[in-house]
Amino acid sequence: MSVEVEIPTILRPYTDGARVVSSSGDTLADVVTTLESAHPGIGERLVADGQLLRFVNVYLNDEDVRFLGGLQTAVSDGDTVTILPAVAGGC
Amino acid sequence: MLEISQELVDQIVDHARRDHPDEACGVIAGPVGSDTPTRFIPMLNAAMSPTFYEFDSADLLKLYREMDRNDEEPIVVYHSHTATQAYPSRTDVSYASEPNAHYLLVSTRETGNEDGPYELRSYRIVDGEITEEEVRISES
Predict the structure, then answer these.
(1) What is the rounded CA–CA span in Å between residue B108 and residue B104?
(2) Per DSSP, what are the bridge partners of residue B105?
(3) What is the tens place of the pLDDT at every residue in B4-48?
(4) CB contact under 8 A, A90 and B49
(5) Are A9 and B99 a contacting pair at CB < 8 A?
(6) What is the ipTM of this complex?
(7) How many angstroms separate the CA of residue A24 from the nearest CA in chain B?
(8) pLDDT per residue over B82-115, tens digit each?
(9) Which alpha helices (DSSP H) does B1-140 contain, by range?
(10) Whole-angstrom distance, CA of residue A5 vs CA of residue B71
């Protein structure tokens, strides 16, 4: 399955500045693995210990994947994956 | 240095006072590359907490799509501290992910929901490093 991945500003150093890159896989976890092979270093900014990091939001066709199946969410040809850093903090 | 209009500062402070004792948060968007904050976008603190703030994930996506359509970027990311000074906490630093943004903090600890003096300070937060910067407020 071939998908497009939208990359946020902070991760564009890994993609030579590209806002959108292609990746592939049957699940979101596969998509991240493929992304990491093409853009080494990006994977650890997204996933640790098999879990999506708290600091990032990942959307599949504009749905937050935390409300789908997380990294196990199945992807289909032509899907769009969007990565956005969480905007959060606290005293 | 952050240059921002008095009108935008007033809107941020009003928002922080309104939401006190919870933390208030939002963005001032502006044209990409301009470093000029122009559009005030108050966001809901999905955590509704006096010690934590977080944009709701659906709101966040909507915000970024809207800014993309308008050729805007987040020039200022603001939030309030309601019991501590206007200085980025460790949590603030760990989440800071817009290297080009000015992180503006306002503290409402002195006056709460009331009018009065407030503390407003601005920072760059890049690779975990905090650099305070001057805030120059212009007449609207």
Answers:
(1) 13
(2) B79, B121
(3) 999 999 999 999 999 999 999 999 999 999 999 999 999 999 999
(4) yes
(5) yes
(6) 0.93
(7) 22
(8) 999 999 999 999 999 998 999 999 999 999 999 9
(9) 6-19, 57-69, 90-95
(10) 20
Q: Is A17 in the B-facing interface, judged by CB distances under 8 Å? A: no
Place of tokens 């309104």: B18
Tokens encoding A70 = 């997380």
The helix/strand/coil state of A35 is: helix
Locate the DSSP E strands across A14-68.
Answer: 20-24, 47-48, 51-52, 56-60, 63-64
User: Dihedral through CA B69, CA B73, CA B76, CA B78, nearest 10?
Assistant: 50
Residue A32: which of B103, B85, B14, A40 has the closest Cα? A40
Record the pTM: 0.93
Q: A39, A59, A65, A69: which is closest to B65 by C-alpha? A: A59
Shortest Cα distance from B58 to chain A (angstroms)? 7
Give the other-Cβ count within 10 Å of A41's Cβ.
10
A64–B64 C-beta distance less than 8 A: no
